[in-house]
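Q: For a teaching session next week I want to show students how multiple molecules come together into a single three-dimensional assembly. I've collected the sequence lines for a complex. Could you give me the predicted structure tokens for the whole thing so I can convert them for display?
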Amino acid sequence: MRSQDHQPLLDIINIDKSFGALKILKGCSLKVNRKETVVVIGPSGSGKSTLLRCLNLLEPADSGAILFDGKDIAGDLRNAPAVRREIGMVFQNFELFQHLSAAENIMLAPMKVSGLSRSDAHDLATDLLRKVHIPEKADFFPDELSGGQQQRVAIARALAMKPKLMLYDEPTSALDPEMIREVLDVMAELSSDGMTSIVVTHEMGFAKRAADQIVFMESGQIIENATSEDFFSGTVNERAQRFLDQILH
Amino acid sequence: MSLELVFEYLFSRTFFDGAVLTLLITITSLFFGVLAGLVVALLQETKIRSLQVVTLVYLWLFRGTPVLFQIIFIYNVLPTFGIRLSAFLSAVIALSLNEGAYMAEILRSGLQAVKTGQRTAGLALGMTKAKVMRFIVIPQAARIVLPPMGNQMIGMLKTSALVSVIAVEELLLVANQTASASFRYFEALTAAGIYYLALTTIFMAGQFFLERSLDPKRGRRKAAPAPLIERLTHMTETAETR
Ligand SMILES: Nc1ncnc2c1ncn2[C@@H]1O[C@H](COP(=O)(O)OP(=O)(O)O)[C@@H](O)[C@H]1O
Ligand SMILES: [Mg+2]
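A: Of course. Below is the structure for the complete assembly, covering every listed component.
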């Protein structure tokens, strides 16, 4: 075992982010251990999406460090494409490429970024579609799939780059209630297979099932960071508790 | 009225050369017009103020005056500033610059129709900006801009007739000269009309096949690109003015 494996996969140290005069992230710090799943909750506008976008360098953090697999990635944006290859991201609105079929959505980055041959990429897409339980939809286009199916293709597309870390930004909040389950099931399976993940979601059932760590954000700050056991046994910060009561009732 | 004379004109060297010149003016002007439109669209995407002002002035000038005015201006006024251009070159420059002003708008709306979320998704997979442009934005934008671009192209074929005013020997001028020499207006103009219809039909067919080849669901799509007949009725229903 390499000595690195004892380190957390991700170590966010005191990052700040402003848009103009508006401070959106104020000194956020967070460690994510290998094979663990962190669930992030918090009111709308608290900076959850911004935090995720800073992690894969879609937004540059203003200050602080982001140690990913031991290296600080926050400093140098020229490495952004290389970093993003190792960090998969899933969006609220799926963002499947509309001009490509499900299989082609999954094949695009492996072919154009990693240089896989078409047939290898196709085999990979077939495997991944099986993993997200829709092997029969390979040749369907995004507008021919339900929301839940689209989101599962999006997860498969992110997995195709064999990322070390998955980021999910409210992956089920654009879905009809009856489709939420099928997406959460896939995510929970990945987590239990050891995929390190950060999930922004308000699905507390998922948190209970899959999270090792739960983080509560408010106004750009992480104001609660608890193990899943502590969190669900009720020993949490009062503001977090109030927020929980709101989303549960 | 003599059908024979129509055929004679149709297959005469002068009419054929006129049609070829019409096609040449159209294609050259389209090429440089699309190029100008692309440059303007990209300049507008950059958020540099001074460049945006330049493009706005260009659009204002070329969309705010008639093409006919622009053709005559370039041919007759530029020489007084020492810029002497052949009639053909003047025609192509005027038509290209005019076309560019319209293409810019079409191309810009196409690029903008591809939502930022699509680009973000590409970047998040580790693609460079150039690859995102090439494999995600352009293929989607192309499908959006193709129908309006096709219409512009057919429009250009017809607009090219205006350059007859600066004595470019294109199809309409040839027909008009032939007619006034022989007083055979019906025959000469019918021959020219047949050429125009043949050319627009070829353009429309080209557009149809291009749209079909860009359709990702080739063959199994419910809504195929509009067939030719539909295009013809559409063309007769929409009035475009320049
Ligand atoms: N690109 C941006 N430019 C300016 N303000 C932004 C930008 N992105 C997010 N914000 C602002 O940052 C705040 C936090 O947004 P976000 O991270 O999306 O919150 P959350 O995901 O928790 O709802 C919001 O007030 C939002 O308006
Ligand atoms: Mg958000």
